[in-house]
Specification:
By secondary structure, this protein is mainly alpha-helical. Helices cover 81% and strands 0% of the residues. The chain crosses the membrane at residues 7-28, 69-90, 102-121, 133-152, 206-228, 243-264, 276-300, 337-356.
Length: 360
């Protein structure tokens, strides 16, 4: 049974995050330390340096040979359920869209497992529960955050290419009005400028951009190291470990600092509005756990493993999802609200889940 000491441990783990958030907020709103361009640079620093090293550090220390693959399978099924529902919504509803499907996937599936989940699950279910939460974090970093990064890059690259094509076409139309050009030349220029790149060309551009993004391969390199080190039982050299830790330890703190900066640049504290904030909370604390429950039933999980799976699916929003949303310009206001208020309301919600699941 979870007690006051256990709740205190969770609060202790969460409080420093809000300190970093407030410092970031105050540095822009109260003290005017950073300019808008500097704020963009800070988010890019977090996105390209501290978060990739943080991801590499915790995936490199996982043990892939001791993972519960039924648990991972249930998690995968829950994600596919969410993707299917969002795809149907985007196709069949007038309010559905590709962009909102991406954001809704983040809201309903991507969790802050390490900072909030580990101390809370340890108090509820002990070390075995913590192992499952860490496994979920590793799989999230390797698969689901990588997929999110891919679709965000695909969306931005597609938009950039379309904008470039439109701009070139407009310039051609201006040229075609010049009296020194004959009609045949005008027509040939118009046909060249209005053609769109093929799907293969678009994918090539996307893969090149992802290859230059350290977030794409930080988790892959980390889990590769984990396989090799656990297979042949060797440890990371201390000089290498120290070099990684000095940056990776700043990952979550700088991410929250960047979120505080973002909030300070918005007109309202709840930047996305109340209705979208409630929508995000419903996806985070109801839709995600419900999909996970279906996945667990599908693979036959039961007992504490089933309970841990559902509770870890109801953990607060992933901070990394906000950093990606800010970097790629997609509903960062919604994700920042989900992270901040999700962590505030998560403790009573998760204790409620814990109490309710105790009856099954």
């Amino acid at each position: 049974m979870i007690g006051l000491d256990d709740v205190y441990k969770v609060v202790v783990a969460m409080a420093p995050l809000y300190v970093a958030l407030i410092l970031g907020y105050g540095s822009v709103r109260w003290w005017h330390i950073f300019t808008p361009d500097q704020c963009i640079a800070i988010n890019r620093f977090v996105s390209y340096f501290t978060l990739p090293l943080f991801t590499f550090e915790f995936t490199a220390h996982a043990d892939p040979f001791k993972m519960n693959y039924l648990f991972i399978g249930a998690d995968a099924i829950s994600k596919f359920i969410i993707v299917l529902v969002l795809a149907l919504w985007a196709q069949c509803s007038s309010k559905g869209s590709y962009c909102w499907s991406i954001t809704s996937f983040s809201l309903s599936t991507l969790t802050n497992s390490l900072l909030v989940g580990v101390p809370l699950i340890k108090a509820m279910y002990g070390p075995d529960g913590v192992d499952l939460v860490v496994q979920a974090s590793v799989i999230q970093a390797i698969i689901w955050l990588t997929i999110l990064l891919f679709v965000l890059e695909l969306r931005r690259t597609g938009s950039d290419v379309s904008l470039s094509s439109t701009t070139t076409t407009t310039n051609s139309q201006v040229v075609s009005m010049e009296p020194t050009k004959d009609l045949e030349e005008n027509q040939s220029v118009e046909v060249v400028t209005t053609s769109k790149p093929s799907f293969l060309t678009l994918m090539k551009i996307v893969w090149i951009k992802l290859a230059l993004n350290p977030n794409s391969y930080a988790s892959i390199i980390g889990i590769t190291w984990a396989f090799l080190s656990n297979r042949w039982h060797f440890q990371m050299p201390s000089i290498m470990e120290g070099s990684i830790l000095i940056m990776s330890r700043a990952g979550t703190g700088t991410a929250m600092f960047s979120m505080g900066i973002f909030m300070a640049q918005q007109e309202k504290f709840i930047a996305c509005g109340t209705s979208l904030a409630v929508f995000g909370m419903v996806l985070r604390f109801i839709a995600g756990p419900a999909a996970m429950a279906i996945g667990c039933i599908a693979v036959g999980l039961h007992g504490d493993i089933l309970r841990v799976a559902i509770i870890q699916a109801a953990l607060p929003q992933s901070i990394t999802s906000f950093i990606y949303a800010k970097e790629y310009g997609l509903h960062a206001d919604v994700l920042s609200t989900a992270v901040i208020f999700g962590m505030l309301v998560s403790l009573p919600v998760l204790i409620g889940y814990y109490a309710a699941l105790g009856f099954f």
